Amino acid sequence: MTTYSEDKTTSVLKAAWLIAVVTVFSKLIGFIRDVVIANYYGTSTVSDAYFYAYQIPALAIILLGGVGGPFHSATVAVFSKLIPNLREKPEEQVEKLFSVFMTTTILFFAVLALLCYFFATPIMNIIASGGSPELINLAAQHLKIMSPVLIIGGVVGIYYGILVTYRYFMLPNLSPIVMSVVIIIMVMTAKSDNAGVVLAWATTIGAVCQLLLQYPKIRQLGFRFKPNFEVLNNVQFKNICELLFPAVLSSTVGQVHIYVDMFFASSLNEGVWTAIGYANRVFQFPVGILVTAFLVPLFPIFSRLVADNDMQGIKNYFNKGVGVLFFGAIPIIIGILVLGMDGVRLIFERGAFDARATFMVTEALWFLSFSIIPYVFRDSITRVYYSFNDSATPFMIAFSSIVLKVLLNMILINKLGMGIGGITLSTSLVTLFNACMLGILISKKIKLDYGSLFKNLLKMCAAGIITFAVCLAAGVLFDRVVELPKYLFEIVKISVVGIVCLGVYVRLNILFKMDYAQELFDRIYAKLRK
After folding, report:
1. What does the alpha-carbon distance between residue 82 and residue 84 come to, in Å, rounded to a whole number?
2. pLDDT greater at residue 373 or residue 85
3. pTM for the complete prediction?
4. Which end of the chain, C or N, has fewer beta carbons within 10 A?
5. Could you say which DSSP state residue 416 is in?
6. CA–CA separation, 202 and 40 (whole Å)
7. 26: Cα separation from own chain's centroid
8. Tell me, what's the pLDDT at 168?
9. 129-159 tens-digit pLDDT
10. Concatenated DSSP letters for 101-157?
């Protein structure tokens, strides 16, 4: 007889597979966008200006308002407890809470958007203080054009949260494709764009389209926005704020880390910040798919389990979720270390993007890969904190790591002269610090079963080390023996070494009796047989 827990696990896995497929498609479109931008602008002052300016609207549309961001997370954590029946229209109090939340969000971000528009130059002077006057003026121009994106970001985040609460996982994950498509079309059809302003306009128009894509479904679910300022004595809105404000500050602190990196990068070679941006995009392709696929469907379950006071259920789902993320993370690390340069060369190296740019991106990516294990653990355990309506602890830990980030950048870049690699290595070390602190302090709320989790991780790491050696040898042998045209060579090499990696890694984990490997292998095999 199938238990309720098994049914829930099956639904999570089905949702995870669906989200993974959608996210893969979204990331592929995002990659095409990056290839187009790289082809037209390379790693230049123009591309640096755009990516410097984009960090501020990105704070709203990706970090705060994106899937997994504070506005999405706060909406899921509160509304999932207020809507017991997902097949019915929202009650009046739920719809009123939605309107209050929307009203305050729009006002807050409108103020920020106005500040960014009128003070764009001073802001860019602070962020890129080591840059040339041309870079700062161009970045300020881009920021003015993209300032409306700030308003859209928070609203999109609330929409995402409502959709995920109602178990509509596809639309939020498909939505970012719209912005990518708009950028691709506008960049490719622009006749003359020496200042790169078409990138800024495309980003703004893409964000508007992203909002419009969500709106019909929100209306269909029964949510109507009516400006409402009833914030006083509103218990549920207070719950949202208690969760949201520290989470927003925590994400903002994460953005402060980026601004610290931008400050150090502006004093290095031209194109460094663009290269770091591309490295992050390559990094987020597999890691973002992995994390999004499992944490988006798990988060509402965590919130419901907390509401039901089912501590054992939280432990079980946390270990299964993080265990699967660890299992998938290690082959990604191996792939980046062995095939990183081949992948960057295949994706980006054409047009204005030359061999120098390829090496810069790859160097940043190598050091960034060491953050994958702590990254997936940090993001997973943060959802547990949010389920307990605690976003203050993640904020305090992130805030305390700012000093660590500055010190590490000073040591690795200024003292040791590591350049671009020093920036991404410091990011990996800060991520490890955050993950460790979050893992330790969660014991105040729940005693998680780390013993079995990290015992399995050790088995995976042992399998990973052996797999890395085999893949490295396979890559070297391939380079010496095979002769093919440039891009075909990269495709065949990545395919062959990738298959070797997965085959050896999975087989070793099964031999080491690693639980998740056998379970995943059995499920995939059963799917293929059907």
Report:
1. 6
2. 373
3. 0.68
4. N
5. S
6. 15
7. 13
8. 79
9. 777 888 899 999 999 999 999 888 888 888 8
10. HHHHHHHHHHHHHHHHHHTHHHHHHHHTTTS-HHHHHHHHHHHHHHTTHHHHHHHHH
